[in-house]
Structure formats: C-alpha cells, structure tokens
Amino acid sequence: MAARVFMSYSHIDEELRDQLEVQLAMLKRQGLVDVWHDRRLLPGDHLDWTINKELNQADIILLLVSPNFLASDYCYKIEKARALERHREGSARLISVILRPCDWPHTELQEFLVTPKDGKPVTQWADRDEAFLNVAQAIRRAIEELGQAKTPRQNHAFIDRPANGEVNESLPRSSNLRLKKEFTKAEEDQFLLDSFEYLGRFFHGSLAELQERNAGIETRYRRIDGNCFTAVVYQNGQKKASCTIRLGGMFGNGISYSQGDDAAANTYNESLSVSKDSQKLFLQAMGMPLLNMADSDTNLSQEGAAEYYWSLLIQPLQGE
C-alpha cells in the first residue's frame, strides 16, 4: 500500500506547502504516497483527534520548518515532539523541510538530515521547483528504505472505483484546486518595489556578515536615495568588488545591476524585470553576465534574485 505522509506546517506557509505537494505528483500518480494535512479534514471531523490519529499512523512525517512553524506551539510542541518520538522509536521516518530561514539548527532537528540539500531554505533557491524536487527525491528514497512502496502504478490512476459500483463517502481529491490569478499593474509595481527593498536589506546584511567572518575584509553599504544603493568590498585595503543597484534602471521598469559604485545611471550589466504565471509574480534576469546562472526561462523569487546579484558582486573575491 502507499506510504502515508503527514505534513506538519504553519498556515502562513500554505502556499509553499501547495507547491511541495504539486512536486509530489508523480509519487501520487504511481500510488507510492498518500499525503495528509489538516486541509483534508472533513466536516464533522474532530480536529485534535483526527490530527493525532493521522500523525500516529503516518509512515513519513514532513515538518515544514519556518519561523512561523517554530513560533507555533502546536507545530513545535505537539507535532514536532511526536514526530521525533516516532522517528527515534523507528515507527516512522522524520523528514524536515526547511522552507524559510529560521533558527532550526538550535532545535533537536539539527541531529537529523534535513532537506533541501545542505539545509538551504527553499525560498533561497533561485529555482523553487528545483528545491522542491530535491525534497521529493528525498521522500522517494525514504519510501524505498522503509520498504513501504508497492510496485508503482503504470496507468497513474487517481481514483479506483469499488467493485460493487458504489462510490465511497470519502473520495480522494486533489489539493491542486487553485485557479488562475490576475495581477494588476499596481500589484506588479508594488512587487518590484518590495523586491528592490529586499535586495537592499539582503546586501546590507550580507556585507556586514562577510566583513565579520573574514579577516582583512572591509565592506561598505551606502543608500544613495530611494531608488539606488551601492556595495563595496575591500580586501587588505584594496577595492576588490563594487556595484550599483538601481530601481528603474535603463528601461525604467526593472532593477539594474552595474559594476562599480560610481556607475552612470544609463549603464548596466544585468537587469531584472517582473514577470508572472497563473499563480505568482516573480523576477526574470536578462542573463547577460552569467548565462549558466540566469537566463530568460529562469523564474526568480526575491531571495533567488538577491542571491544572483550577490554572486555577481562576490565573484571576483572567489577566484571564479
């Protein structure tokens, strides 16, 4: 029979949970997993009793870890505690999925392997599909190790009709029930502005940490105005890397990256623009400097875009 998978998460992270469940589609189609979370509660179900039952019957327990997960007494004190107990007694496999940056290394979870790879939070991957694929692959390996998986289905049937022709009262159903979203120009402009502000905070914090961790390194973050900031890295007193990041850029509808902290407003080496699909807004890079890192088909989150621009700045110091 399919491995029973229990998802423990904060409702703040529901959108990320949905994205993970979409990435588990092939495991579902092959009949290898049966995923349960509290959105599958039926009218009349007793909340605590049903959650406790599902948690105790699960073969694999996914903890979707984020600041809100750690702040939730129910997630942290009840569901996490029971997941650790069952993992240690060998009756279930615990898999921690680090969704967003948080202080998880100071919990008991640091004793166990976490996903995605190296514990890098999902929101910090340039491509979230790749991050969730990494998680799905870990789940597949866990199923194989547990010996829970039956022979994968070849016909990928979702619903098996009972032999007597009757329909079960509780039918399986997809969690992929989201409809196409429409985004206004105001929402796109706000997303661009929020992304620029995030880049500013990201660079400010990263420069401070780079200086703290490395002897001989001095850094300087300077906010020029509401639409521009610069970043400089000195090594042993010599300027080694610098950049200027502007909201608007050459074409007035993106976020531009220019080498040097004195770059003219009409020059740039890279540019990010807002794009969208049926569910979300994201950033796309023109992909000029490093085609292996960003291209026109890469959908970047704010975190992914910040990591990309940071890589352009720090590359000279890493000898690449």
Automatic annotation (TrEMBL):
Record's signal peptide: none
InterPro entries: TIR_dom, Toll_tir_struct_dom_sf
GO BP terms in the entry: signal transduction
Superkingdom of the organism of origin: Bacteria
Family matches, as PROSITE patterns: TIR
Transmembrane segments: none
Database matches in SUPFAM superfamilies: Toll/Interleukin receptor TIR domain
The TIR domain, residue ranges: 1-143
Protein's recorded name: TIR domain-containing protein
Species, as recorded: Kushneria indalinina DSM 14324
